[in-house]
């Protein structure tokens, strides 16, 4: 088994990847509809919940992703 | 009833979720090389991973929809399921029971019964648990298809087969580890997917206080109307809540149900195993922010004719489970709808995976290895676990179609926890804390408890006896009857176990070392700083619980 195979990526890596991907899609969709308004607006649409919520998800995802990559790198180094 | 439509972006998000969970299953397969890897995730999880999985195994989509709908119906009383009906039991498990479970290195709850009592008690519990788990899994599958069909217009067969096949693939590839990974992803999806509903609801109505101002007192209090069952929507007294829900049902579920306890067993050491339920308790206490406040927001909006909000109707009856989906439809634009639906789907599938991973463990260790093939090797048990996973999913599908053709079985299934878990808690409590309880006492007590719970259920269902006979009150709901039935089953198991133990042969004390209080070393942790002690965080959790109960009294 290679060294990369031995160290299992932690769950936080996958959580980060998932939040980044879905958050990014929601953010981009919200930004698109900022310039191309939807046919029917939802209640409180004027708050643009998709833009800021997608942004928060993306940000949290990046934090999880980067921290988990750093933890894997540290573990790999420690294992020689 | 008009279905809630999904856009292309929503479908993309749902598709990405499926790719992720299947990908995780394939990725983790290379790390699953022994039976311990498959059934106990290699016992290498941190307290946070085990703790979030411990909570998420219980956090199904049915619960989210059902509890939000129940809040619409009953008001704040539903919060008892999250507070007194969960937290004391979780903390008791962490502080007092986990040392016996974890130090005995057992692989399942029935495995503890074998060590503490004997083989027949283990097999009795294994069979009843396996039966319950696979039936509940099938019923959940049916309920999932029902929700997806009702709210989103999806095809029954496609919904059931696609989700069942996905769960079968990723659980059979890497067992408990992939179940835990997807449960934690589900945890984040649920919070990100549904927290915003409540936040937007509070913004629309004005404030949390304004929500409480706009609903009747019977809906906005926790305890102040509990002395008279006619004064609260749940038609229950404080005695039913404390004894039935807070003590028997809650302790029976959180301390003995292998589905949740298995997650704590996967922890890397004793401290992490004990911290897992403590960590989970904080998030459990926070769940009412989504489900209870969500239900109250739906209630406020539906009482305001200018809001344009109403629940869906099905065959002329209000569909209370539609409260959460209708709030999603009210506030979420495309993209966010996909996230909300994915959160519900993840809840369904992670719940399914949880049931199947607990079933395959109990089947393989406590029935197959215990009764059928005592000399099975690790590789053979790993193979059997994968076979049991696929078989469990297939039985679930059969049960789901059975439920579809005969929806009344749902009534039976809702009561199944009090048949199996309530008496088991009496057996565990006596077994762990009293050394003279005998194997025959445990076996006959458990059998009597399970039998009496089932008989009481049938007796009320078919009106052989009045509901008020078991609830000790002239007014009682089905939920109140459920609480009281659990209490009587527990009491009967407790009494029979003690009486039979007085007249039957005890196990030698040397065989009970590490399994019973008084014969087990009291120091369970290495010396650690105060902030790393489970006891410290358990006290904090308990203080928050008390504050919540006083605040919403």
Features:
heterodimer; A: 80 residues; mainly alpha; 74% helix; B: 553 residues; Sodium/glucose cotransporter; 1% strand
Any overview of this molecule?
The complex is a heterodimer of chains A (80) and B (553). Chain A is mainly α and 80 residues long. Chain A has a domain at 11-35 and 47-75. In chain A, 74% of the residues lie in helices and 0% in strands. Chain A has 3 helices and no strands. In chain A, helix 2 (11-35) runs antiparallel to helix 3. Chain A starts with a helix and ends with a helix. The mean pLDDT of chain A is 88. Chain B is mainly α. Chain B has a domain at 8-25 and 34-218 and 259-407 and 522-551: Sodium/glucose cotransporter. Chain B is built from 23 helices and 2 strands. The chains are: A mainly alpha (80), B mainly alpha (553). Chains A and B meet through helix 2 and helix 3 of A and helix 1, helix 8 and helix 16 of B.
Write the layout of secondary structure elements.
The complex is a heterodimer of chains A (80) and B (553).
Chain A: H1 3-6, H2 11-35, H3 49-78
Chain B: H1 8-29, H2 35-40, H3 47-56, H4 61-74, H5 87-103, H6 109-116, H7 119-152, H8 156-205, H9 208-213, H10 217-220, H11 238-256, H12 258-265, H13 270-286, H14 291-303, E1 313-314, E2 317-318, H15 323-331, H16 336-372, H17 378-405, H18 409-414, H19 416-433, H20 439-461, H21 467-471, H22 478-503, H23 534-551
Antiparallel strand pairs in B: 1-2
């Amino acid at each position: 088994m290679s060294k990369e195979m031995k160290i299992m990526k932690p769950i936080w890596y996958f959580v980060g990847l998932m939040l980044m991907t879905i958050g990014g899609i929601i953010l981009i969709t919200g930004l698109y509809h900022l310039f191309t308004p939807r046919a029917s607006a939802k209640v409180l649409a004027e708050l643009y919940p998709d833009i800021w919520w997608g942004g928060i998800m993306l940000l949290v995802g990046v934090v999880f992703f980067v921290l988990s990559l750093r933890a894997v790198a540290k573990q790999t180094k420690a294992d020689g | 009833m008009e279905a809630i439509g999904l856009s292309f972006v929503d479908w993309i998000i749902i598709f990405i979720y499926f790719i992720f969970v299947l990908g995780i299953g394939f990725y983790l397969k290379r790390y699953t090389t022994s039976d311990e890897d498959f059934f106990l995730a290699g016992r290498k999880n941190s307290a946070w991973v085990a703790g979030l999985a411990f909570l998420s195994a219980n956090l199904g989509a049915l619960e989210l929809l059902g509890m939000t709908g129940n809040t619409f119906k009953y008001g704040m009383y539903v919060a008892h399921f999250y507070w007194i009906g969960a937290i004391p039991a979780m903390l008791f498990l962490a502080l007092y029971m986990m040392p016996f479970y974890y130090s005995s290195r057992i692989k399942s709850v029935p495995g503890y019964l074998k060590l503490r009592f004997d083989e027949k008690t283990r097999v009795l519990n294994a069979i009843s648990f396996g039966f319950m788990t696979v039936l509940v899994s099938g019923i959940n599958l049916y309920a999932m298809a029902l929700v997806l069909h009702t709210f989103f217009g999806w095809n029954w067969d496609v919904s059931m087969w696609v989700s069942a096949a996905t769960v079968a693939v990723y659980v059979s590839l890497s067992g408990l580890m992939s179940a835990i990974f997807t449960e934690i992803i589900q945890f984040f999806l649920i919070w990100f997917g549904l927290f915003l509903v409540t936040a937007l609801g509070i913004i629309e109505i004005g404030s949390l206080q304004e929500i409480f101002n706009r609903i009747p007192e019977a809906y906005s209090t926790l305890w102040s109307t509990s002395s008279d069952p006619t004064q609260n929507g749940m038609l229950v007294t404080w005695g039913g809540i404390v004894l039935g829900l807070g003590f028997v049902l809650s302790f029976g579920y959180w301390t003995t149900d292998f589905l949740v306890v298995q997650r704590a067993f996967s922890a890397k050491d004793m401290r992490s195993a004990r911290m897992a339920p403590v960590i989970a308790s904080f998030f459990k206490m926070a769940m009412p922010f989504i489900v209870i406040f969500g239900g109250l927001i739906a209630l406020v909006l539906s009482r305001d004719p200018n809001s344009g909000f109403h629940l869906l109707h099905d065959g002329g009856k209000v569909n209370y489970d539609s409260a959460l989906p209708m709030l999603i439809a009210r506030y979420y634009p495309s993209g966010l709808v996909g996230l909300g639906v994915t959160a519900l789907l993840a809840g369904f599938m992670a719940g399914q995976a949880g049931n199947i991973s607990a079933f395959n463990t109990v089947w393989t260790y406590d029935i197959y290895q215990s009764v059928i093939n005592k000399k099975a090797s690790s590789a053979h048990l790993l193979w059997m676990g994968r076979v049991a996973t696929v078989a469990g999913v297939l039985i679930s599908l059969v049960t789901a179609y059975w439920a579809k053709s005969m929806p009344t079985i749902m009534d039976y299934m809702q009561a199944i926890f009090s048949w199996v878990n309530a008496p088991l808690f009496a057996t565990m409590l006596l077994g762990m804390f009293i050394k003279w309880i005998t194997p025959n006492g445990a076996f006959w007590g458990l059998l009597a408890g399970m039998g009496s719970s089932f008989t009481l259920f049938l007796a009320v269902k078919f009106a052989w006896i009045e509901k008020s006979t078991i609830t000790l009150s002239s007014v009682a709901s089905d939920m109140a009857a459920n609480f009281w039935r659990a209490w009587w089953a527990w009491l009967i198991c407790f009494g029979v176990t003690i009486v039979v133990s007085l007249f039957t042969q005890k196990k030698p004390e040397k065989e009970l070392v590490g399994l019973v209080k008084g014969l087990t070393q009291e120091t369970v942790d290495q010396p650690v700083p105060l902030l790393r002690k489970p006891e410290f965080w358990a006290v904090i959790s308990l203080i928050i619980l008390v504050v919540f109960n006083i605040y919403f009294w």
